[in-house]
Design a protein that fits this description.
This protein is about 0% helix and about 50% strand. The chain is an all-beta fold. A hairpin with a 4-residue loop joins strand 7 and strand 8.
């Protein structure tokens, strides 16, 4: 069984930045496409960004393109999401996921970390 644990969420003003981290343990996810999803109150969970097992070929939802950067460090079993120029509409619980296919999530989820952007 693998475990994914997110951290780095918090409260930030519009225009600010946050960096989310997701540490994997219990099994290796080095060969998995990994990604971030988010769920705002009253909305469905949606794709944010994903990255290949090698750290190349990142891709993003149109809503975050140019503001968010996904990266990974397989030596540390850690996935990152650098979020800049945050907007109130980015407010959501952000989830780490392993086994992403396109914009569809894989089987492994973290517990989520809350990001709140105030206007």
């Amino acid at each position: 069984q693998g475990q994914l644990v997110e951290s780095g969420g918090g409260l930030v003003q519009a225009g600010g930045s946050l960096r989310l981290s997701c540490v994997a343990s219990g099994r290796t996810f080095k060969n998995y496409v990994m990604g971030w999803f988010r769920q705002a109150p009253g909305k469905e969970r949606e794709f944010v960004a994903a990255i290949s097992w090698s750290g190349g070929s990142p891709y993003y939802a149109d809503s975050v393109k140019g503001r968010f950067t996904i990266s990974r460090d397989n030596t540390k079993n850690t996935l990152y999401l650098q979020m800049n120029s945050l907007k109130p509409e980015d407010t959501a619980v952000y989830y780490c996921n392993a086994g992403v296919f396109g914009t569809r999530p894989g089987a492994y989820w973290g517990q989520g970390t809350q990001v709140t952007v105030s206007s």
